[in-house]
Amino acid sequence: MPKTIGIFSGKGGTGKTVSSINIALALHQFGEDVVVVDADTTAANIGLHLGFYTFPNNLQMSSTRI
Predict the structure, then answer these.
(1) CA count, 13 A, side-chain hemisphere, 41
(2) Number of other CB atoms surrounding residue 49 within 10 Å
(3) Beta-carbon count within 10 A of 1 CB
């Protein structure tokens, strides 16, 4: 049966990303299938921690004026 673990806080710099990655890696080592989703709409950086250096696609609106 699938389970969901949510890690969240309103404050930045509390270790949410590092904790999420470490929990996911531990579950993977126990043979579980794991999906990690970074729902931060302004500064999603799980990819950065995992070595995926790409420009993020996010839901933030562009503030560029024409």
Answers:
(1) 5
(2) 13
(3) 2
Residue with tokens 């470490």: 22
What's the pLDDT tens digit per position in 19-62? 999 999 999 999 999 999 888 877 778 888 888 776 556 566 55
CA distance 8 to 35: 16
Cα torsion 54, 42, 20, 33: sign: negative
Amino acid identity at 18: V
R_g of the chain, CA atoms, integer Å: 14
Distances (CA, A) of 5 to 52, 53, 55, 59, 62: 23, 26, 26, 22, 31
- Distance in angstroms (rounded) separating the CA atoms of residues 19 and 8: 10
